Amino acid sequence: MAKLYFYYSAMNAGKTTTLLQSSFNYRERGMNTMLFTAALDDRYGTPLITSRIGLQSNAHLFDEDIDLFVKIADEVKKDPLHCILVDEAQFLTHSQVKQLGMVADQLKIPVLCYGLRTDFQANLFEGSQWLLALADELQELKTICTCGSKATMNLRIDAQGNAVKEGASIEIGGDDRYIALCRKHFHEKLKASGS
């Protein structure tokens, strides 16, 4: 039985690297994969999935208007697919998470989603909320805080490295905008910022 998987973490845990390795493993065995990434994340050019360590692959883009089930079903008519991989899955909508569940249930193709659990204010992203609720398998990918403890929070920082408390939930950025921290140090940095 195909399943819907959600691999989640704080920033810099290797989600994208793991996704690209999974796709490589399928393709190395002669199996077809279909990769998706969020259209709004254009840091590395589109349509590419790029890891911080330099691995990359072409991908299909998704935004809130795309019906993923229809897009994948259309692709299956051309070539068999053995795995669907979704990067930046926190940006999926509730409907799209349900569509990916239908891909696993009706098309019988495993779907591996990789994304952040929460934003910089410790609120669940819409895609992550529904993946946590609907995925068959949940797996936390771990990274570490500056203190060596497990990092679970994403701290947004300004150009001077100070914590940012307010702003839009979604602001694309990498190490220049976010730091992965444990809960204790996340709250300490917010308190110290005074903003």
The end-to-end distance, rounded to whole angstroms, is 50 Å
Query: Measured on Cα atoms, how large is the radius of gyration?
Result: 17 Å
CATH superfamily: P-loop containing nucleotide triphosphate hydrolases
- Find the CATH topology: Rossmann fold
Helix content: 25-40%
Characterise this structure.
- The protein is an alpha/beta fold and 195 residues long.
- It has a single domain (4-142), classed as P-loop containing nucleotide triphosphate hydrolases (Rossmann fold).
- The chain is 30% helix and 24% strand.
- It has helices at 15-28, 68-78, 94-107, 126-134, 183-193; strands at 4-9, 33-38, 48-50, 56-58, 60-62, 83-86, 111-116, 137-140, 143-144, 150-151, 153-156, 178-181.
- The strands form 4 sheets. A 6-stranded parallel sheet has the order 5-2-6-7-1-8, with helices on both faces.
- A hairpin with a 5-residue loop joins strand 9 and strand 10 (150-151).
- Helix 2 packs parallel to helix 3 and helix 3 packs parallel to helix 4 (126-134).
- The protein is elongated and about 55 Å long.
- 37% of the residues are buried.
- The model has no long low-confidence stretch (mean pLDDT 89).
